[in-house]
Amino acid sequence: MTDFLFEPPVTPGIPVEGEQALYPVGRIFCVGRNYAAHAEEMGVEVDREAPFYFTKSPAACLASGSVLPYPPGTSDLHHEMELALAIGAPAFRVAPEAAMDAVYALGCALDMTRRDLQAAAKDKRRPWDLGKDFEGAAVLGPLTKAGETAPLGAQRIRLEVNGETRQDATLDQLIHPVPALVADLSRFYHLRPGDLILTGTPAGVGPVGPGDRLLGEIDGLAPVTLEIGAPA
């Protein structure tokens, strides 16, 4: 038995519809600018050649239904509604036509972003970590097994803040579709069970503040909800 100097972090887990056991979260890969309208609203060119990625740590995980204290260091916290893929089998250098064999489940997720810190990093050509990877930055809804969902296509993806629709699109608007994302990422990593891929957000991202209630939905999946609390 290995002894540690300090207690190791607890592995975050996500409920899976129909299962008592939780899905353990390891790495979190996020796809940037994967909807053309979102890229345009951010003032950048649409890049259709290849996807690009950033990461969030397991410490960023937060369960759906939680209260997220308004994060430190920002005055411009934004919501980003996304489809999450939960990997359930090893995948390395897989072809797009075989990529879905590695996807165990799908879910709704929120990529919360300290937009002012992200913008400052962009201006200085620095990494986005401060803007994207912080406690509560990856809000994860319950997962639905891939075999129990309809084939991915024109499912609606939407987000409401206090009952007002902010984001509303369909999954077929993804620039790089799900099989292509899994295949591309597997060129650079040995994907394994526990890896999550957040596939990008539609247009309509915007600020939220204390007291706001968020509801994110994708057709056929359990929703993700979040309340923004007072600063801790």
TrEMBL record:
Residues 28-224 form the Fumarylacetoacetase-like C-terminal domain. Keywords: Hydrolase, Metal-binding. GO terms for molecular function: acetylpyruvate hydrolase activity; metal ion binding. Pfam families: FAA_hydrolase. It comes from Rhodosalinus sediminis. This is FAA hydrolase family protein. The keyword Metal-binding applies.
